[in-house]
Design goal:
The protein is of the alpha/beta class. It is built from 19 helices and 27 strands. Bound molecules: 6-O-phosphono-alpha-D-glucopyranose.
């Protein structure tokens, strides 16, 4: 998954391309590059590392010109290196392109092109597209087509695309046709920004904010031919399409760190506010229920639902697990939580009363989008629980619930998780009140929810204690995270946070399940983090803690304020405020986010941009 930008108009392309790439860096930061048409040629600057390093290179070796494309890469085929960075050149430089996606049949295409004499410089699947396109172009020219005609280039693109298996978002420049940029999409999002006498292209709308308010989201199999003055849209099979112009809904992303050292820390501390935002306007006190503006399903349809599937990836999948417990408890509807990457290829029996929710922060995760499409294809009501307004999943789902958490920049998700859990609590309340949940029970839940922002504020007071605890454990190479019931998904999420940003091996388990294998890992160097607020099986979790202590494993406990029993047993305790059991994930997640943050800092890791990861995974 990578970020693509393009510009075609009267201004200096490099300025826009670099600005756009900075905004898209969350999609990958292994390398970055730009290509700009200048004086009958195409000049390229590309470099391993961050967009900042590319910007530095462009300062030293500027490229003039006002037609260009750019790319920020998350490596799929070929290690991060200058050579593997995009843009890639086809043939003898007649074609230059950038690509997001994966070409599955690249090996056979590359072998064929090698036989034809094409020389490959990189290990990427993208270079195959570049050479294939150059080849199709040369074939057309051999047949007498004009190499400087847009129509010839377009035909060559169409002939190339039909040979590709996999996914692509492409931005292409042709050396001999200045002032034209061709974009094509299958599976990897692209959006065109329409300006006055200029056009922009980007993987998502964020690079367009502030430059234009009119956008066209490309659909799969569409090809856009952009010039400064106009845009033509074609289907891959040749049919002319009418662009559907939409107003850009996104606002500029606030990247100001304020008093914080990192985005992750800032986002952790934003959680009282983001939870409040997720709740705002959604509590119906008279009816003791929740209400949502965007569900677009009538009560009759909702009452028929006899099963819910929550599908997601990563942290969003963990939020889904909390959602399963919530919805089953309050609405008594059976829920399954499916990894989107599995669901998209499985064919589980689902009745026509099954409802699907795709949970996603970015709204761009390729697997989640594909799972959503698969469920829609089979006719199930398929909705999104999503943070980014106007994202691919939000648009394709057509209806759903926004998180309103604001932009999440830190790659490791924090505030989106608690916003997702909050929305799922509201959803459980809403569905519950349509079924057997009583009015007083609904009122009680509303009261608890309203108190949550303050509870989160209190939970954040543990920051100094967590910082100190991190000092004692940051050199450990393995961690166990253990919790039960509502706190089991929190244990999984805590372990994921630690892995993501500190590169320490960590496993999350239901605390009791630990006896069936992971206990073999316990020794004096392997800390166990117990998420053990008071709950109806609290004594059982305490027994699990005893089992670890008996094997000399250090224990860090996340417990309720005033819990002296845990303090006697555990080596270190982090206290969180007392809340009802079903709301505990919202408070217990906080110290685990902070623990991962402080440990990563002590280990000298880049907390906002951890190695090998990307904020938005737009490839399978
Ligand atoms: C990536 C991110 C994770 C995120 C996951 C799902 O792996 O690094 O933080 O949880 O994608 O992303 P989504 O945007 O769909 O919630």
């Amino acid at each position: 998954m990578c970020g693509i930008v393009g510009y075609i108009g009267p201004k200096a392309a490099a300025d826009y391309l670099l600005e756009g790439l900075f905004r898209l860096e969350y999609r990958g930061y292994d390398s970055a590059g730009i290509a700009i048409q200048t004086d009958g040629d195409i000049s390229i600057r590309k470099k391993t590392g961050r967009v900042g390093q590319l910007a530095e290179l462009c300062k030293q070796k500027p490229i003039k010109g006002s037609f260009g494309i750019g790319h920020t890469r998350w490596a799929t085929h070929g290690e991060p290196s200058d050579t593997n960075s995009h843009p890639h050149v086809g043939g003898n430089g007649e074609v230059v392109l950038v690509h997001n996606g994966v070409i599955e049949n690249y090996a056979s295409l590359r072998d064929h092109l090698r036989e034809l004499g094409y020389v490959f410089r990189s290990a990427t699947d993208t270079e195959v597209i570049a050479h294939l396109l150059a080849h199709e172009l040369s074939e057309a020219i051999k047949l007498g087509d004009d190499p400087t005609s847009a129509e010839t280039c377009l035909k060559a693109v169409e002939n190339t695309l039909v040979q590709l298996k996999g996914t692509y978002g492409l931005a292409i420049l042709f050396r001999d046709v200045p002032g034209m940029l061709i974009a094509a999409r299958l599976g990897s999002p692209l959006v065109v920004g329409i300006g006055r006498g200029e056009h922009f292209l980007a993987s998502d709308a964020s690079p367009l904010v502030g430059f234009t308010e009119e956008v066209v989201y490309l659909n799969d199999h569409e090809i856009a031919v952009l010039s400064a003055e106009g845009m033509k849209l074609r289907h891959r099979d040749g049919g002319v399409q009418t662009p559907s112009i939409r107003v850009l809904e996104q606002s500029a992303i606030d990247t100001d760190l304020g008093e914080f050292e990192h985005h992750m820390l800032k986002e952790i501390f934003e959680q009282p506010q983001t939870i409040e935002n997720a709740i705002r306007g959604r509590l119906d006190e008279d009816e003791a229920t929740a209400r949502f503006g965007g569900l677009n399903l009538d009560p009759q349809q909702l009452r028929r639902v006899d099963r819910i599937v929550l599908t997601a990836c990563g942290t969003s999948w963990h939020a889904g697990l909390v959602g399963e417990y919530l919805i089953e408890e309050f609405a008594r509807i059976p829920v399954e939580v499916e990894y989107a990457s599995e669901l998209r290829y499985r064919n589980p029996p689902m009745s026509d009363r099954t409802m699907i929710f795709a949970i996603t922060q970015s709204g761009e995760t390729a697997d989640t989008l594909a799972a959503l499409r698969e469920c829609k294809r089979k006719g199930h009501p398929s909705l999104a629980i999503c943070n980014v307004v106007g994202s691919s999943i939000a648009r394709e789902a057509g209806s759903g619930i926004y998180l309103h958490a604001g932009p999440e920049i830190g790659v490791a998700s924090t505030k989106a998780f608690t916003a997702q859990v909050t929305v799922l609590t509201l959803l459980a309340l809403f569905l519950g009140r349509m079924r057997h949940l009583s009015y007083p029970a609904g009122k009680r839940i509303i009261g608890h929810l309203k108190a949550m922002p303050d509870m989160i504020r209190k939970a954040l007071e543990c920051n100094d204690a967590v910082k100190e605890i991190a000092q004692r454990y940051y050199q450990a190479e393995n961690f166990l995270y253990l919790g039960r019931l509502y706190n089991f998904p929190v244990a999984l999420e805590g372990a994921l946070k630690l892995k993501e940003i500190s590169y320490i091996h960590a496993e999350g388990y239901p605390a009791a399940e630990m006896k069936h294998g992971p206990i073999a890992l316990v020794d004096e160097d392997t800390p166990s983090v117990f998420v053990v607020p008071r709950c109806n099986i609290y004594p059982k979790v305490i027994s699990n803690m005893e089992e670890i202590k008996a094997r000399r494993g250090p224990v860090i406990a996340v417990a309720c304020e005033g819990d002296d029993k845990v303090a006697e047993l555990a080596d270190d305790v982090i206290y969180v405020p007392v809340v009802d059991e079903y709301l505990q994930p919202l408070v217990t997640a906080i110290p685990l986010q902070l623990l991962a943050y402080h440990i990563a800092l002590l280990r000298g890791c880049n907390v906002d941009r951890p190695r090998n990861l990307a904020k938005s995974v737009t490839v399978e």
